[in-house]
Specification:
Distance between the termini: 100 Å
Strand content: under 5%
Number of strands: 0
Radius of gyration: 32 Å
Largest sheet: none
Helix content: over 70%
């Protein structure tokens, strides 16, 4: 350590500033690396977590619109108006299918993978009953 004591004050200051700059550079590099990991993690959370939830929300909204149109068809006696309602029901059913398909293609947890087939089965049963109701209403029995 004698060599350090023998150095001039200017050289000691330069060594100190160089050491401080090296430490600051190391801290910056570690921070930048952490930010990249954070960015990747945030993107994963968004695409794997929030987008599927959004798709389910949109599917729910489309389902509710279709359900409301069925209710409206019950209230009216006008056959032309009923056909308009049922056209909306068919369009919203396609929307539900699209959103559910997008959800199915996303990264699902084991619990979601287990419940999705049950949901699709229940939706299929519901649609069969709804189709029968639509047929009856179009036939004037409602």
């Amino acid at each position: 350590m004698k060599w350090f004591k023998d150095m001039k004050i200017g050289s000691k200051l330069q060594c100190g500033f160089a050491a401080a700059a090296a430490i600051a550079g190391l801290i910056g590099w570690v921070g930048y690396s952490g930010m990249n990991d954070l960015r990747k993690g945030s993107a994963s959370i968004y695409y794997d977590g929030l987008v599927p939830i959004r798709d389910l929300g949109y599917a729910n909204a489309a389902f509710l619109i279709a359900r409301t149109e069925i209710r409206s068809a019950f209230v009216t006696k006008d056959r032309a108006k009923r056909k308009e309602y049922f056209a909306t029901v068919a369009a919203e059913a396609k929307n539900v299918d699209g959103y559910i398909e997008a959800y199915r293609k996303s990264v699902l947890s084991p619990a979601e993978r287990d419940i999705l087939p049950k949901f699709i089965k229940a939706l299929t049963e519901y649609r069969a009953i709804r189709a029968r109701i639509i047929d009856l209403l179009l036939a004037g029995q409602g």
